[in-house]
Amino acid sequence: MDRREAMLRELNLYPLWVQRHAPELTPSVEAAVAQEPPAALPSPDVQHDAGNASVSGDAAPRLEAEVEDLFVAEPHGDSSEDSLREFQLKIAGGPLADVAWTELGLKVRDCELCALCAGCTQTVFGVGDEQADWLFVGEAPGEDEDASGEPFVGQAGRLLDNMLRAISIKRGDNVYIANVIKCRPEQDRHPHVGEIAACLPYLKRQIALIQPKLIVALGKTAASALLDTDATIATLRGSVHDYNGTPLIVTYHPAYLLRSPMEKAKAWQDLRLAVATLQKK
Ligand code: SF4
């Protein structure tokens, strides 16, 4: 067994991570991926504690229903006449256009624009290299993130770190990680449309400050918010989208991958597409 196969087995991806149509990595990236086998992924048979999802031991039989819940059906619960676009337009004229990092962090810390601020321990602003080429965007803080103040910790965070390692990048080093929502929704529910609209300007300002070369949207909420679409993950992944001139790749949220490990093969395809896209920049 060669090192690359060993790595893929470690990721529980082999032989599922065999692509037919995705672009090939250059030899240098292929070698980089093979150099450092990621640590073992967390078992899916654990209670997930971040990213608004729970993990159970019988995830496979419930897969279809969970996919429907997370990625196909309207996830936000609030389908009032205040559409996401209307909220965004309402807030677009806000005062964030010239706000620098420090002030932006303070504004998020003190924000009371939506009711989520009342139920969280602290805001979770984002973490990483403020001039990173890579930006990964998730949905909202979970329990561990709420406690630590950092996005993507706990089981989903460890899986994300392994995903980053598989493409030879790591948290904090040319990588920035943030969520659409900065305050933990109660009971880790999906955020409502109005909450997304209220919080999205902060993420947009973060993106403007970072000026990443590539954005990876992790899950339906991030993809919908940044691309202003209700399309499903299945529809959006596999293509290079555009966010104000920055290429954007859509893939599954690590919390979903914990519950549905068979989908890791598709996430690997998405990461390869992301690497190939960045190489063209
Ligand atoms: S979730 Fe966002 S918009 Fe709502 S209170 Fe927190 S920081 Fe403000």
Provide the fold topology.
Layout: H1 3-10, H2 27-35, H3 63-72, H4 84-92, H5 101-109, E1 127-128, E2 134-138, H6 143-148, H7 154-166, E3 175-179, H8 193-210, E4 214-218, H9 220-227, H10 233-236, E5 240-243, E6 246-251, H11 254-259, H12 264-279
Parallel strand pairs: 2-3, 2-4, 4-6
Antiparallel strand pairs: 1-3, 5-6
This protein binds iron/sulfur cluster (SF4).
Account of the 3D structure:
By secondary structure, the protein is α/β, with parallel strands linked by helices. The chain has a single domain (3-279), classed as Uracil-DNA glycosylase-like domain (Uracil-DNA Glycosylase, subunit E, 3-Layer(aba) Sandwich). Helices cover 41% and strands 10% of the residues. The chain contains twelve helices and six strands. Strands 1-3-2-4-6-5 form a six-stranded mixed β-sheet, with helices on both faces. β5 (240-243) and β6 form a beta hairpin. It is globular, with a radius of gyration of 18 Å. The two termini are 34 Å apart. Residues 6-12, 15-81 and 87-93 have low confidence and may be disordered. It binds iron/sulfur cluster. Iron/sulfur cluster (SF4) binds next to α8.
Tell me which ligands are bound. Answer: iron/sulfur cluster
Average pLDDT metric: 78
What is the strand arrangement across the widest sheet? 1-3-2-4-6-5
CATH level 1 class label: Alpha Beta
CATH architecture classification: 3-Layer(aba) Sandwich
Shape: globular
